[in-house]
Amino acid sequence: MSEIRVENLSHIYSSGTPFEKTAIENIDLCIPEGQFVGLIGHTGSGKSTFIQHLNALLSPTGGRVLCGGEDINRDKQARRDVKWKVGLVFQYPEYQLFEETVYADIAFGPKNMGLSKEEIDERVREAASFVGVEEELFQRSPLEMSGGQKRRIAIAGVIAMRPGVLILDEPTAGLDPAGCRQVLDNICRYRKETGSTVIIVSHNMDDAARLTERLLVFDHGRVAMDGTPEEIFSRPQELVNIGLAVPRATAIAMALEKRGIKLAGSIYTHEQLKAAILKARGAGAC
Amino acid sequence: MSSIISFEGVHFTYPEDELESLCGIDLEIEEGSFVAVLGHNGSGKSTLAKHMNAILVPSSGRVLINGLNTADESQLIGIRRCVGMVFQNPDNQIVANVVEDDVAFAPENLGVPTEEIRRRVDQALRQVGMYEYRLHAPHLLSGGQKQRVAIAGVIAMEPRIIVLDEPTAMLDPQGRQEVISTVSRLCRENGMTVVLITHHMDECVGADRLVVMSNGRIVADGSPAKVFSQVELMHSEGLDVPETTRLIYELNQEGFRLPMDALALDACADALADALK
Amino acid sequence: MLKDITLGQFFPGDTLVHRLDPRTKLIAVVLYIVALFQAGGVVGYMLLILAAAACMAVSHISPKSIFKGLKPMIFIIILTGALNIFYTTGTPVLPGWIITWEGIIRAVKMILRIVLLITGTFLLTYTTSPMALTDGLELLMNPLKKIKVPVHEMTIMMSMALRFIPTLIEETDKIMSAQKARGADFETGGLIKRARALLPILVPLFVSAFRRADELAVAMESRCYHGGQGRTRMKQLRFAGIDYGALLASAAFLAGVIVLKKFGL
Hints:
By secondary structure, chain A is of the alpha/beta class. Chain A contains 11 helices and 10 strands. The radius of gyration of chain B is 20 Å and the shape is globular. Chains in contact: A-B, A-C, B-C. At the A-C interface, helix 2, strand 6 and helix 3 of A face helix 8 and helix 10 of C.
């Protein structure tokens, strides 16, 4: 059971000092089990603060967070247990690799859970296969891997805890196009095969639009828009007003609309755009 | 115009490697031009950049910067003051606790007189739009702002060339935009030669010239419109092409006759609008 | 949180004290510390307290920020006090007690010394930017270059360290959160278990510090850094009238404290 329910959540940093800053304010939402959610918004819009509340790394200064119906900040034990249920992969997670071997690093999470040796072994192998890290690499040092490999090993370290909810903060930041594709493919496969909830923070609108079922747009610590990509990108002007980019296909569709050509439907992928243009030509020719 | 950077048959192998990282590069870069170098990781694009200010020197062949051979150690300072380098991680190239002190670092190293340093620092900070932040602590700035400070720190040397090695890889879209518009302004308004190393193809669209690298070789070289129109080549190198080019390419296969060089969003939309009306 | 550490913090301002040449402030603090250890009687200590209070008032540094800086030292201060109270022989406060009048007086003096010592150095770091401080140090130690002391290298290392402290603190916070998200536990267990629990933080921190050092070295070389030779400065330090005044006042102050001591005051 890993439905996440966020009730009236607020977080104020350095409360009561001159540096007081409201990071998020009155957020209410529910993420049902198995949903693929994209979080978008500017740096400083509260996304990072928000996701760190979902596994109790930060405690709310107002409101509460429930996972599977239970308050995750109920007591110390609950705050610790939620780490296994809600796995959080930070930005540039390769910087947290520390063990001498790839195997030991992936095993760190499961070991902290107090699992048996056999169970740990099974999970490490499973997690490594999800991210395409071959077993020949297990005894090598994680530090000698390439950038993309390190990133995937670090993600495996979280997947190995078999969290019902997997959260990734900009998993493709700094990778080249090939590395990005690989990481995103891994994540999609993980979701498909385990049915886990996946929450992904992304600056890349094209990825967010193409992969997710639901988008949450953060702005100034609040959820400014919440809906399917289709709903969100049928109102692209609102995104532009917040100062966010739109998918490249949407940008072309908007430019065409300015020139008097209105394409049918909500357009946010290359395929939709191409199909809509071909359809428009068909209509024009008839 | 004359070329200010020239690579002549440059080969390079890292000491710990067996494979060559650069396999015979011939490249001439004209003064005042904006050149983007695109390639995936391990294509040799960063190695190429590091040859431009003698951080690395060729195993064979030679690199001339403004006529100076980078292998000649007595010319080192002369070459480095001519070529400013900006690196990926802004945190690891800022040396001082205060923005203006950091920008002053290079001219101080060069022994520039005090009043002249002040003038250069103020001018450099104005050029990157960070003058109001001159007394701030760098670690409290955003990624894009830090990278602009790093650029100011380099242009305070008054170099003729500025080489940026994946300057936007760690930035958010807003920071990326800030950096790219800053460097293109430096090129257009101040006549500086800009070499931008990147793996983001959108950043190459505004360049005069696009060089694509793969496995230590130059595989394409020309105007961005011309290079991107070679869609199959780009895909075979594991690189994307801009959405505009891809769309036009695929629509032309469906019987449209759109110009392949409509790379910019507006040009593409104009061409499409004409075709659909 | 780690971010709350005030060590070496600088509060920018434009007061008389802020405007003093860093060399003046460095010398003045040294003179003040010497005076601290020369002071004998009540009058001497009163003068020392008065001087510190006056500097705080002029530089707009609130007692609150000094107390905040004193907090980490509280244990040492209390320990020193206790040791002096219990281990000084003399006239007992009450017959049969171990605590003596002499002990109490010595404890008070010692505590005052430590508190004033820390206050003095805080006044220096609070009102002087780290860059100015290292510049001042370099110039003051310049004569040592003659006997081959690498003064420039030492001071540039110091300013780099100051530059990277906030960056590394931020990084430590991030790594800690990331390991906590993998269930690392830094709060329970005995001493050895806790020390072991630090490995997942220390290893990545060192790896990253080395990477940063590498990249920084390349970046500095690219900006034509080649040691201290032939370097110029944007901000040249110059002694002004107030500097001579402040130095004179500090010297007179020290002399005064020494004279007072001769009279047992």
